[in-house]
């Protein structure tokens, strides 16, 4: 991979993809959609990538008629982050067929809930599946540095003594550490196989065990929703970061961010 376009370059998954690809020497066009989200640490994120000559930032004008992707670029869509913000409808209204068609390979990252058979016909899954080269990744809750404030773990670290309400879109049956997710996705992308892949932790009850070390005064329950995974989806277990190390890494990163404010 020489060139990549990331829709949601400053969102949780997209930003970590951006950092990893730049580290590998890949040219990255990062699409930031300020009308959908501006987080408290946007400037810190810009500083992290802005000095890299391989990075170019674009905004909503990227979706205007006449815009096209770089030749042979891989398109990453961080649908996962917009879904968690309840902004997926706005994202869908921007993405059009010509943008997706212009990619050499299209990588769609979505929440595990969309692996349910009842979602199989929904946008953006079918749009991406029409491409010659595509991969779709279904993720449970992901945690680690730069986790957004509306995720339960980050919210608990920011307000350690307050009872919290867990967002209904947080998948509490499983969790993965962010660097393990990015490593697995980028390794699989290089194989250029057309696959739908659900990533799950090799640690049983990963979310619950991580939450138990962070949450206070909050009732912790697993998601009741039953997952009926489409038969076309490959389920891959992810090994990697020790749970306690992942939680501590997120804590230390948040402390550093607070010091910058």
Automatic annotation (TrEMBL):
It comes from the Bacteria. This is UDP-glucose 4-epimerase. InterPro entries: NAD(P)-bd_dom_sf. It comes from Niallia oryzisoli.
């Amino acid at each position: 991979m020489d060139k990549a376009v990331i829709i949601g370059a400053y969102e949780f998954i997209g930003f970590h993809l951006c950092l990893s690809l730049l580290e590998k020497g890949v040219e990255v066009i990062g699409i930031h959609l300020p009308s959908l989200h501006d987080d408290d640490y946007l400037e810190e994120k810009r500083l992290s990538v802005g000095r890299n000559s391989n990075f170019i930032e674009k905004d909503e004008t990227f979706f205007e008629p006449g815009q096209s992707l770089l030749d042979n670029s891989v398109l990453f869509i961080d649908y996962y982050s917009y879904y968690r913000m309840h902004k997926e409808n706005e994202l869908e209204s921007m993405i059009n067929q010509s943008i997706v068609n212009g990619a050499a390979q299209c990588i769609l990252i979505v929440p595990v809930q969309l692996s349910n058979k009842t979602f199989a016909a929904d946008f953006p899954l079918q749009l991406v599946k029409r491409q010659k080269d595509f991969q779709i990744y279904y993720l449970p809750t992901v945690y680690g540095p730069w986790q957004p404030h509306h995720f339960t773990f980050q919210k608990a670290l920011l307000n350690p003594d307050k009872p919290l309400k867990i967002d209904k879109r947080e998948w509490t049956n499983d969790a993965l550490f962010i660097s393990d997710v990015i490593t697995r996705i980028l390794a699989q992308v290089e194989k250029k196989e057309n696959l739908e892949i659900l990533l799950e932790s090799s640690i049983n009850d990963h979310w619950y065990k991580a939450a138990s070390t962070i949450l206070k005064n909050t009732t912790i329950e697993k998601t009741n929703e039953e997952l009926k995974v489409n038969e076309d989806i490959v389920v891959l277990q992810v090994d990697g970061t020790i749970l306690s190390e992942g939680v501590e890494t997120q804590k230390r990163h948040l402390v550093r961010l607070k010091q910058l404010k």
